[in-house]
Amino acid sequence: MATPTARPFLKWAGGKAQLLDAFTARVPRELTEGTLPVFVEPFMGGGAVYFHFNSTFAFRECHLFDINEDLVLAYTVVKNNVSSLIEYLRDVEDEFLAKDDSGRKDYYYTIRDAFNREREEIDFTRYGDAWVERAGRFIFLNRTCFNGLYRVNSRGGFNVPFGRYKTPKILHEKVLSADSLAFRNTTIHLGDFMQAEPYIAEDTFVYFDPPYRPLNRTSSFTQYSKNRFSDEEQRRLAEFYARCDAKGARLMLSNSDPRNVDPDDTFFDDLYAGYRIDRVPARRAINCDGTKRGEVHEIIVMNYPPA
């Protein structure tokens, strides 16, 4: 079981930290009894739910999946070689913070250009020494870019501009070390959510956190990779959810609630008819002005009665 101090080492749009209590209150009875030893998360993202659940419950093994190549690479480096990553980030942080505002901006774009340029040279399927530097650059960009966003263009190039922070914390050494320990019972996979199916069985608890269906045109964070997560993808996921249900696994899924803006929009109620759907409060940006945040509801879909 992971150390309780493990938590996300990245800023990540749509993070679930504020909903952890709501999720924990709705876990299946078998999980609290210790009879679901396998945890699977087909959309790894920032990892808040994984780190929380792996710190709370005694899983024998965990399997994390994501289609974001650099995210999977960074997680893998934290698992396999966290000491070298910490050393790299310490040097980068010292260099960056020693510069004035103009120098920091130039440094950021130098790192971003190198990060995008080397993309074609990295083998994302085979672990190598070059992974440490790339993971370090990925974390640096995440910690110093505008709003901690991850956004790429159609060619896969990271294109988020520089964020003006006075004293950004780039190296979180204790968090990285704790997360590396948490990964000891965990296998990290690069792939589409459907590739999780071989690891899902009757003894499995699965948490699905797909890219949320946007409530409006300005709230979309689905440009998470080069491919957008459309309504058709949401339907494909619902079919996969039903297949996992047929295997006897215990399933939890979260998503946005379109009825926040249109009470007649029953997209998810129709898609997951027959399953339990709870609506829980969350604070999210609800219009194009990201500084204006309000309480909305999000949905939690379960195929079991909560404990």
TrEMBL record:
Species classification: Archaea, Methanobacteriati, Methanobacteriota, Stenosarchaea group, Methanomicrobia
EC number annotated for this UniProt entry: 2.1.1.72
GO molecular function ontology, one term from the record: methyltransferase activity
A GO biological process held by the record: methylation
SUPFAM superfamilies: S-adenosyl-L-methionine-dependent methyltransferases (SSF53335)
Keywords recorded for this protein, A-Z: Methyltransferase, S-adenosyl-L-methionine, Transferase
A matching Pfam family: MethyltransfD12
Keyword Nucleus: no
UniProt feature coiled coil, ranges: none
Name assigned to this protein: site-specific DNA-methyltransferase (adenine-specific)
Catalytically driven reaction(s): a 2'-deoxyadenosine in DNA + S-adenosyl-L-methionine = an N(6)-methyl-2'-deoxyadenosine in DNA + S-adenosyl-L-homocysteine + H(+)
Similarity comment: Belongs to the N(4)/N(6)-methyltransferase family.
Highest taxon of source: Archaea
Annotated source species: Methanoculleus methanifontis
Signal sequence annotation: none
